[in-house]
Each structure stands twice: as structure tokens, then as C-alpha cells.
Write a structure and sequence with these properties.
Pfam families (chain A): ECF-ribofla_trS
Strand order of the largest sheet of chain B: 1-2
Shape of chain B: globular
Mean pLDDT of chain A: 87
Keywords (chain A): Cell membrane, Membrane, Transmembrane, Transmembrane helix
Distance between the termini of chain A: 44 Å
Structural class of chain A: mainly alpha
Membrane topology (chain A): Multi-pass membrane protein
Largest sheet of chain A: 2 strands, antiparallel
Shape of chain A: elongated
Largest interface: A-B, 57 and 73 residues
Oligomer: heterodimer
Low-confidence stretches of chain B: 1-7
CATH topology of chain A: Arp2/3 complex 21 kDa subunit ARPC3
Strand content of chain A: under 5%
InterPro entries (chain A): ECF_substrate-spec-like (IPR009825), UPF0397 (IPR022914)
Number of strands of chain A: 2
Number of helices of chain B: 10
Low-confidence stretches of chain A: none
Helix content of chain A: over 70%
Order of helices and strands of chain B: HHHHHEEHHHHH
Mean pLDDT of chain B: 85
Protein name (chain A): UPF0397 protein IV87_GL001143
Number of strands of chain B: 2
Strand content of chain B: under 5%
């Protein structure tokens, strides 16, 4: 929440539309991996972009709400993973300042560091937070949920690494650099 | 058709339909959380039966949801099998006793404890299904956001939720159009194509989809800014319904159920109900 006015109108709309897209991507184009309830989700590549553009509040809420709606339409809200998704979105939002993608200022070095960061947070969220939540709350066998967790780490890191990177580059190209205008002599 | 479950709201004019969105939202969250934490089979059974009864009351036709139900059943069964494959002795570990029904190979025998534990899991998987479907199919989307606002969530975020619900069908339409256009150009995205082709084709759909939506964000936020959205501390809702007697009754029942659930933690000295002791 910046300023006393709360989040900006643009962020509100970004959360709304972002959630809608996240939901559609998660629901209609998942690519199954063979491990129950674990898919390659293109939605996470998109989440990386939204986090980088609109920041942690938008990122967190898009992932939280999108995942919640998706689970609700299947009738099984799986709260531990929904919350984990929210955390994942917030962590993506934290890249906004560094990537500074709004000004089209995206270098190779930034992309490499972004990818290192995204792999680390995938391990943190899907390899540790989400399965531990399942063990504590749902009391499922640790080996099963950690297998699901590790599969998700790989899938989501791949989705973000490939699609997320493509989207970031494509978006940065549409933005003009700060101070990109030069005075002709 | 089955794609539109989320916006499957239809006026049904019965007891469940007339409750406010606030009541239904609180009910869904409270019951799904208590059911998530509790491992008391008796409690979960009663919850399941009550939510099925509620489903009956809501007047939703079975065929409206049959597609979803078959999917959920398949997923639950897969999950239960996975639990057995990865933790055949987990029930024994939880309850601390072992009653073997059938002696298998290595750790893969069948015990009452394991069956009982997986039965609990099964109940946990399914009891929310009728609740979630009732919630989605009897709550007006715009009323939903007004109820989020009423339970104390900032109206900006409530409005974002309402925007999401409003734009899901639009995004779906965009997605279908772009995907048809790509298919017309020979990009295979169905199961028939090779995986690499499918991934590439999916990316070719995603880029236009995402970039038109980013433009849309700018357009909508400008329109909202012109209408002075977010200038004041409060906002009124067109779809807001006043709380009636039935709402308070329903909330009372929900509170009672949650309290019973919490009380059972005491009785069982933990989350698990153990019939083997």
C-alpha cells in the first residue's frame, strides 16, 4: 500500500485483468506431468511478467486469486498451495525495482540474475513452503508431497525461465528507454 | 459449456439463493478451513452430508456439474493411490497401531489404519466440492465483491476481484479467437501434436493474448480514473443486499459447526480421531 490513497487505479485493474488471464491460463492450457495434481503451468511465466511490471501487491494477489478461482471451479480449494502461490507472486513482484522494465532498461545481466532468482524462489516456495504446509495441515505423507513439490519446482522454473524470459524481453522492447530521446544537433 | 462454470450464476430463487454473498463467503471460508484442519472422521462425515444436503437445497441440477464431478473423482482417486504408493505405512505411523487386513510385499500391506486414514483424506477432498459449487453457482459475481468489501477487504481489492470475474469470459473469448486463428495457420495445439509443437504454438497464442490484455489494462484504468475511482475512502455497491434474519441464522449455524470442530480437537487431544485405541 503506497501513499495514503492505497494502491493505484492501474494496479487495481492489473490485479483484475491479471487474475482473469492467470485463471484462464491455469485452467485451460495446463500440460500434465504425470504426477497427480501437478502440471506445467504457463500461468507462471505470465505471473513473472506481471510481478515485474506491477510489483508485489499485484503479483501476490494475481497468483492468490487466480489459483483460488481455479481451485474453486474444481470444488477443492487447496489452501496451502493457494497461499504458497500468493507468496510466489509477491516474490516476483520484488523484482520490479531491479528489472526496471517499465523503462525498457533490460540487460542480459539482469535477465541472468532474474533467472537465478526465479529458480531460488521456486525452490523456496514449491520445494519447501507448499509441501511443508501439506504435511503440517493436511497431514499427507512427506514423500508424496515432496515429490509433487519437486516436480512443481522444475515445471514452474521451466515455465518462468522460458515463457517468462520471452515475455520480459518482448515487453521491454515495447517500452522506450528513459532518456532515450536525443537532441539532434 | 463446461467452461463457464465460474460464471454459472443463475437466479434460482430459493433459500440458498436468497442468502447474501457475505454469508456464503464466510461459510465457504470457515467451513473449508475447519475441514482442512480437522481429521475427525465423524465431524468430516457430518460436514460432507450437510454440504450435500445444501447442494440439494440450492436446486443445482446434477447435469450442470457432472463434468466437473467426474474430473474431481478422477483426481481424488489418483491422489489417494499416490498417497498409498508413497506412504503405505503412513496410517500405522499416525495412529500408532497396526491391524493388518492383507499381508503384501515389503511395506505394501493393507492395514485398517491406512484405509481409515485415506478415507479421512477422501472426505477432506470431497466435502468442499458441493460447498464450492453452491457458492459459485448461487452468488451473483457483483454481489460477491460487495461482500468481500463488507467482510473488511479494501474496496479497491474487492473491485479488482469483480473486474477479474467480469473479464474471465472476455479473456476466454480472446484466447479462443487467437487459438482458432493460429490453428487456421497450421499450428497444432491439441493432443494430436508433438509436445514441442504444442509448446511453441501455445507461446504463439500467449504473446498476442497477453499484449492485448496489457493494452486493456491501460484503457480500463484510464476510464476508471476519469470516473474518479479510488478518490474516496468508501464506495457503495449497486448489487449489495441487506443482511436478513436467515443470514444471521446461517452464520450462527456455521459458527456452531466451527466451534464443534474446535471442541473436537480438545476431545481427541489433537486433530485425529482414533478409533483404534
Amino acid at each position: 500500500m503506497n501513499k495514503k490513497q492505497g494502491i493505484s487505479v492501474r494496479t487495481v485493474v492489473a490485479i483484475g485483468i491479471g487474475t482473469a488471464i492467470f485463471f484462464v491460463l491455469m485452467r485451460y492450457i495446463p500440460i500434465p506431468t504425470g504426477v497427480p495434481d501437478t502440471n506445467i503451468n504457463l500461468a507462471y511465466g505470465f505471473l513473472a511478467l506481471m510481478g515485474a511490471i506491477f510489483g508485489p501487491i499485484a503479483g501476490g494477489l494475481i497468483a492468490f486469486l487466480g489459483h483460488m478461482f481455479n481451485d474453486l471451479t474444481w470444488g477443492e480449494p487447496w489452501w496451502t498451495w493457494i497461499v504458497a502461490d500468493g507468496i510466489y507472486g509477491i516474490l516476483f513482484g520484488l523484482t520490479r525495482k531491479y528489472l526496471n522494465i517499465e523503462n525498457g532498461d533490460l540487460t542480459k545481466r539482469k535477465l541472468v540474475l532474474f533467472n537465478v532468482y526465479q529458480v531460488l524462489i521456486a525452490i523456496l516456495v514449491w520445494g519447501i513452503i507448499a509441501p511443508t504446509g501439506d504435511v503440517l495441515v493436511y497431514s499427507e505423507p512427506a514423500s508424496k508431497v515432496y515429490l509433487q513439490g519437486i516436480t512443481s519446482v522444475i515445471c514452474n522454473a521451466l515455465s518462468v525461465g522460458i515463457l517468462g524470459t520471452i515475455l520480459l524481453v518482448a515487453y521491454a522492447r515495447t517500452r522506450s528507454k528513459k532518456g532515450g530521446l536525443k537532441k539532434e544537433s | 459449456m463446461n467452461n463457464n462454470v465460474l460464471i454459472g450464476y443463475k437466479q434460482r430463487d430459493n433459500f440458498v439463493d436468497r442468502l447474501t454473498g457475505t454469508t456464503k463467503l464466510i461459510g465457504l471460508i470457515a467451513l473449508s478451513v475447519i475441514g482442512m484442519v480437522s481429521f475427525d472422521t465423524r465431524f468430516l462425515l457430518v460436514l460432507t452430508i450437510c454440504s450435500l444436503a445444501l447442494f440439494r437445497l440450492s436446486g443445482i441440477k446434477f447435469r450442470e456439474v457432472s463434468f466437473i464431478l467426474s474430473f474431481i473423482t478422477a483426481f481424488s482417486v489418483l491422489n489417494l493411490i499416490a498417497v498409498y504408493v508413497f506412504g503405505p505405512q503412513y496410517g500405522v505411523h499416525l495412529y500408532g497401531t497396526e491391524h493388518v487386513i492383507w499381508q503384501g510385499v515389503g511395506p505394501y500391506n493393507l492395514t485398517w489404519e491406512q484405509l481409515f486414514y485415506e478415507f479421512n483424506l477422501f472426505l477432506k477432498y470431497i466435502f468442499t466440492v458441493p460447498l464450492a459449487l453452491v457458492f459459485l453457482m448461487t452468488t451473483n459475481p457483483s454481489e460477491f465483491s460487495s461482500s468481500l468489501n463488507r467482510i473488511g477487504i479494501s474496496y479497491r481489492i474487492s473491485y479488482a476481484v469483480s473486474l477479474a470475474l467480469r473479464y474471465i469470459p472476455d479473456v476466454q473469448n480472446d484466447y479462443r479467437q487467437i487459438s482458432k486463428a493460429q490453428q487456421a495457420r497450421g499450428n497444432e495445439i491439441s493432443r494430436k501434436g508433438k509436445l514441442t509443437h504444442r509448446v511453441k504454438a501455445a507461446a504463439q497464442i500467449l504473446l498476442p493474448l497477453i499484449f492485448t490484455s496489457l493494452d486493456r489494462i491501460e484503457t480500463i484504468s484510464q476510464a476508471m480514473e476519469l470516473r474518479r475511482f479510488g478518490k474516496l475512502k468508501k464506495r457503495s455497491w449497486y448489487a449489495e443486499k441487506p443482511m436478513k434474519r436467515n443470514d444471521f441464522l446461517a452464520l450462527l449455524v456455521i459458527a456452531l459447526v466451527v466451534l464443534v470442530g474446535i471442541y473436537l480437537f480438545r476431545v481427541n487431544a489433537g486433530r485425529f480421531y482414533d478409533p483404534f485405541r
